[in-house]
Specification:
The chain is mostly beta strands. The chain folds into three domains: 68 residues, Sandwich (Immunoglobulin-like); 216 residues, Pectate Lyase C-like (3 Solenoid), CATH 2.160.20; 218 residues, 3 Solenoid (Pectate Lyase C-like). It contains three helices and 43 strands. It has a 28-stranded parallel sheet that branches. A four-stranded antiparallel sheet has the order 4-3-6-7, with no helix packed on it. It has a four-stranded parallel sheet with strand order 12-19-22-25. The longest helix is centred in the first third of the chain and has 10 residues. The protein is globular.
């Protein structure tokens, strides 16, 4: 069956519904109005260069067909008509911004082949940006061209904080991002072109911990809704590549997100305190987490109580990141209703990575999480649930965050609920098959591991399975659980581990079949 994921004015995205992770069982031909367009072997595919306001008949797979109609638009204009040179040398910032400012409701700005050197660009509601296949938006390498915006500014009438900038879970000043939208809606960024932060040719990645102001993102969406990013390649951001913040109804479809493996904090896609996020058919290879779902640190969590909710990750491939799919660690508003399915993870440090710690707060609730039908190869530790995450906070080495003694449950204590991992193949592991470590005062509520096969790399190298204080290295370890109320292990094979296949400590109820 063919599922329509998105229909815009000039592009559309589709998905084959089957049980195969990311790749289809065989190559197939996509036809449009009876004419072959291309052949592909992935479950998600896209069409570009369509005509607005027209009905099409699509055929794919086993001869199945679906009708779809592109949306109408008020106009489509070429950015070069506003003075953009696209020669990679001329500063095209003013031309691009002027063109966007002039677009009417429902208008489209087209970027033909060329390299458009630019500083930050502000998007607005009800527009489409279309990047043709050989169009590149290239970030300026001069950091002074990236204005600093405040984390918050006071409303001069009410005195209330209005939120603008953010970094790692706090409302703090930040350099403006290359493409940004704040308090906007109905925006589409489509095409086979590239948005390149150009950090590889700047000093953004150098001495990054010493910078007084948070680095810019590549695309930053603050309190936006109904935004679609479809088809483009995003790469080489100064920090996180795509950062939606307190936004809703977002689609990230058939994207490629790239950064060098050693580039700092270049997460591919970090939706923070968002509601209704679809990440489907994407390809990630970055220097940090591929996807990190967040909801702020404790002050943000207490103030807004906004969880990351209703997220779907499907038919994606992740490579060479610290974590393929990560929850946290800035998750003080909670994470719920997350489904990750039919994905492929290759050579990431961790596959499914959940990280939190004391101090995230009572609203830091992660619950209702399903990981299903996933293939991993060369992942160091496929499953990690870590309630002792020790990175990025001033009190990371404090007694409060290091003691293994049972502490009182209070307003600083996070909670992890139900997690289900099933129908997975995890080949060539290195460090451990599974590492789940809860708090003694707040054990992980329930973990189900079902229909999973683990094997190990014959040349496995030791490593730390989770980032926590006093962590010990492991190599070819089995499934490790500590401080879990209920653990179900059903039809799981662990082939080639050194030592016990299952290590269960402080587990209230253990069901093994």
């Amino acid at each position: 069956m063919i599922k329509t994921l998105f229909t815009g004015s000039v592009s559309a995205c589709f998905e084959l519904e089957n049980s195969s992770p990311y790749y289809s069982e065989a190559e197939y031909t996509v036809k449009l109005d009876g004419k072959p367009v291309f052949s592909v072997n992935t479950n998600v595919f896209s069409l570009f260069g369509l005509t607005p306001g027209r009905e099409y008949i699509l055929e794919a797979g086993d001869g199945e067909s679906v009708k779809f109609t592109t949306i109408t638009e008020t106009c489509a204009v070429n950015v070069k008509d506003f003075g953009a040179a696209g020669d990679g040398v001329t500063d095209d910032t003013q031309s691009i911004q002027t063109a966007i400012n002039c677009l009417p409701f429902g208008g489209r700005l087209y970027f033909p082949e060329g390299v458009y050197s630019t500083a930050p660009i502000a998007l607005k509601s009800h527009i489409t940006l279309e990047l043709s296949e050989k169009a590149v938006l290239l970030g300026n390498t001069d950091y002074t061209r990236y204005p600093v915006i405040p984390g918050t500014a006071k409303d001069i009438v009410t005195g209330e904080d209005v939120h603008f900038g953010a970094w790692e879970g706090n409302a703090v000043p930040m350099h403006q991002s290359l493409l940004f939208a704040e308090y906007a809606e109905d925006i589409s960024i489509v095409g086979r072109g590239t948005v390149d932060g150009n950090a590889q040719n700047s000093d953004w990645w150098e001495k990054f911990k010493e910078r007084p102001t948070a680095r810019p993102r590549l695309i930053y969406l603050n309190r936006c809704k109904n935004v679609t990013v479809h088809g483009i390649t995003a790469q080489n951001s100064a920090s996180w590549q795509l950062h939606p913040y307190f936004s809703q109804q977002l689609k990230f479809l058939d994207l490629a997100v790239n950064a060098p493996k050693n580039s700092p904090n270049t997460d591919a896609l970090d939706p923070e305190a968002c509601d209704g996020v679809d990440i489907i058919g994407c390809r990630f290879s970055v220097g940090d987490d591929c996807i990190a779902i967040k909801s702020g640190k404790i002050e943000i969590g207490k103030k807004f109580k906004q969880p990351a909710d209703h997220h779907t990750i499907r038919n994606c491939i992740m490579q060479f990141g610290h974590g393929a799919v990560t929850l946290g660690s800035e998750m003080a508003g909670g994470v719920k209703n997350l489904t990750v399915e039919r994905c492929v993870f290759n050579h990431t440090d961790r596959g499914l990575r959940i990280k939190t710690r004391r101090g995230r707060g009572k609203y830091a609730v992660i619950d209702g999480v399903l990981f299903e039908n996933i293939k991993m190869d060369g992942v160091l530790t496929p499953i990690v649930i870590n309630m002792w995450y020790n990175c990025c906070d001033p009190d990371r080495y404090s007694e409060y965050n290091t003691t293994r003694e049972k502490l009182p449950v209070d307003d600083r204590t996070p909670y992890l609920g139900k997690f289900t991992f099933r129908n997975m193949e995890c080949l060539s592991c290195h460090v451990a098959a599974c590492y789940c470590d809860g708090l003694p005062e707040m054990p992980i509520d329930e973990v189900t591991v079902e229909n999973i096969r683990f094997t190990y790399d014959p040349d496995a190298k030791p490593g730390v399975p989770a980032m926590r204080n006093n962590a010990e290295q492991m190599c070819r370890a089995g499934m490790y659980f500590d401080n879990v109320k209920k653990l179900t292990v059903k039809n799981v094979s662990v082939t080639g581990c050194d030592g016990d296949e299952l290590m269960a400590h402080n587990v209230g109820e253990l069901i093994r079949e």
